[in-house]
Amino acid sequence: MLRYGLLGLGSMGRHHARNIRALEGAELVAVADPGGDKFGVAEDLPVLPDVDALIDAGIDVAMVATPTAFHAEAALKLAGAGIHTMVEKPLASTISEGEAMVKAFDEAGLVGAVGYVERCNPALLEMRRLIDDGKLGKVYQISTRRQSPFPARISDVGVVKDLATHDVDLTAWVAGERYETISAQVSHRAGREFEDMVIASGRLEGGILVNHMVNWLTPFKDRTTIVTGEKGALVAETVMGDLTFYANGEAPLQWDQLQNFRGVSEGEVTRFALKKREPLAVEHEHFRDAILHGATEHVSMREALTTMQVIQGILDSAESGQVVSF
Known about the structure:
It is built from 9 helices and 15 strands. The chain has helices spanning 13-22, 51-56, 71-80, 95-108, 122-132, 159-175, 256-259, 279-293, 301-320; strands at 2-7, 26-32, 47-48, 61-64, 84-88, 112-115, 139-149, 179-187, 197-204, 209-215, 217-229, 232-237, 242-248, 266-271, 324-325. Strand 9 (197-204) and strand 10 (209-215) form a beta hairpin. Helix 3 (71-80) runs parallel beside helix 4 (95-108). It is globular and about 65 Å long.
């Protein structure tokens, strides 16, 4: 039985606590948050003051759900204590912090993971499987939209590090390719220190074109990933975990104006019936299995560092007006 500790009892920590308690082979034995436990996450456990007290509780595994600014300090202490650790996304506040975290967990031979929960969404899991099976043939383009009202819980980063990081990670993961270039523009419309809108476009190493539209100024929640290939397009709507395939048409065209257009036509549309499980539960299973069995479905800190480099490239491009290459 793995003894789990949870650092951070806020809006994400409460969901991690629930999933750890339901996880086979795991026991939540300690929780900590210097700000207390406003959601009643601890139940019968004492609320410890910090990561040092969490370590002293004798844990094997830690989940860090603190604001990003505190990830590196906590994770480095946990690595030094020999504790497998998953931190919420993004990995850290700076590239140098992320590099230090990757080095610490690699040298200690520990599993260091990052909570990119979109990789565990049923629609994206099936999308990736279908792409790997050749459903789209050659992939041409990946487009994402991640729009919603501003979440009051976010105070230490802008929309690029908080939301766009999901899209960068899932795009590289779905395609199985790294970013080659990125170009971006941001805006500050809500009077905050950090950006609240971004449009980014780029190219992956294999030639796939990508674009991301992300903001905190839309009065509805939109989480959409579109992958277009030579055989059609897959559209994942990840709020509800729905996946639809739009096939290129095969029937001969009998409309002269359309025949003159040398593109594709609309074919059959398939909406997949998926087994839908809570993505956070799947994420914790992947982390546990990496610890116990050496499985590789989790998002490693090294992968998350690569995502951080692209995210920094988005911010650098927005500031300089130049395309950033990797």
